[in-house]
Amino acid sequence: MTVMVIMTFVFASCLDSLKSMVHSKFQILSLHTSRKRCSITFDYTSVLLIHCLREFDSHFLLNDVKMFYKTGVPPLQVPTSFWVEVMVMIMNIEGMQEKFEIKLPVRCDQKVLRSLPEILKSKKAMLRFSNLSDTCCPALASVLGVRESHLRELDLGFNSITDRGVESLVQGLSDQDCRLKSLRLQGCELTSSACEHLATVLKQRPNLKELDLSCNSIGDVGLKHLANGLESPMCQLETLRISQCNIKREGGFHLASALEKNPSYLKWLDLSINRIGNKAANELFTKFDISRLRKLEMCFCGLTERCCATISDALKLEKSCLVELNLSSNNLKDAGAHLISAGLFAWSRLEKLNISRCGISKLGCFYLSKVLSCISALYSENMHMEIGWQATELREMDLSRNKLTDEGAVYISTGLCNPYSHLRRLNLRNCGLTSKCVPFFNMALKTNLHLTELFLMGNQLDDVAKKVLLGMIRNNAYKLQTVDLPIE
């Protein structure tokens, strides 16, 4: 039985039952191939029928083939080579490819214009650092507005796109046939005008899930324009990255107001390297429940310990989704570390914590050590300890460029002695450590079942201490696999 026969049966049924028919016809096809080896051939009608799937925006046929290729169709014994042949043939007819990139020597607008058919067939167009200007944007907009386009991710980072280019792109993004999910425009020489254009897209296209405007001078005015789109109920943006965008307190207020009106979808917020300050940060944390986020990045935002209490409360919530938190290069000090540590107790799901260069000393390490040392029993509904023990979920911690000294390192190593600790990666670069702390790490890692990466560059370790650490890597009794050591 040929694929032509399968497709004929598929399109004989109504559109609502299209998927179930594909499954049933694949089972018929499997039954046939179990009796004798099948040679797959295509004629003109077969090609037309497969192209019809694109008209319905239905790529489930290829997905089903991949599923059958991996799992088979029990109890029938279908040859693996059969599924490979079907999958390759469909991909050749559709012309799909996973990613389009321009090779380094020929990166320019003309190359993009000549490659439009390839971009049309690609799921991802990775065009960052491609020496592009706004000249190519009308052509890319036409690709975005074509229903047959497979493009879902467009990365134009670090090109001279400018506001004019964004205005052209918006024409394609606003088209009802546009299905782009991710748009990255980092370092594209954009201003507040670009945000005004993009706001119209956010109001109209719920399928756009990721927007990256980092390293552009959009300022508070630009974020105000963007907020007009973010507050729309049509906006379902899940990732917003606006790091290093010259945003200050007023911009933080605009963002807080927008997310208060439309809080349901955002999962990743990056505000790093903007002088937001405590007042705007607390306004954001008050109006928008940051426990909804999976990832929050506010590196170098002019924060102090005064904004840590709200963050701590979010971490404490059992419903909290926060998995990654980056507060590095803020003046949190030990008081901030204390509040963050308090949030990590109980049922915090946080896995990655970055508080490097935050003015933390040995006292802050004492608070963090208590978190690492903590374990709690997990009980069943009848209050019998039938499930086991639970430590904090923390897997990566960055304390680099804090003046911890050996005393702070000893506190941390005490926490690492907990055999239930999940910590796998610990960064203590440039923390004022000496060889005196190494024996404590040696003792802790004998019982630690997870730590595999330890970063100690920029500390004063002698040759004996280095030898001990390298020996821990070679010894199978330790789990440690990577240690970066000071180079003299």
Task: Considering the chains and any ligands shown, give keywords for the structure.
43% helix, two-stranded antiparallel ribbon, 19 helices, alpha/beta, disordered N terminus
Description:
The protein is α/β, with parallel strands linked by helices. The protein has a domain at 3-94. Helices cover 43% and strands 11% of the residues. The chain has 19 helices and 16 strands. The chain has helices at residues 3-12, 18-35, 44-55, 60-71, 80-94, 109-114, 116-120, 137-144, 162-173, 192-204, 219-230, 249-261, 277-287, 308-316, 333-344, 362-373, 405-416, 438-444, 463-474; strands spanning 97-101, 122-126, 153-155, 182-184, 210-212, 239-241, 268-270, 295-297, 324-326, 352-354, 375-378, 388-391, 396-398, 425-427, 453-455, 482-484. The strands form 2 sheets. A 14-stranded parallel beta sheet has the order 1-2-3-4-5-6-7-8-9-10-13-14-15-16. Helix 8 packs parallel to helix 9 and helix 10 (192-204) runs parallel beside helix 11. It is globular, with a radius of gyration of 28 Å. The N and C termini lie far apart (71 Å).
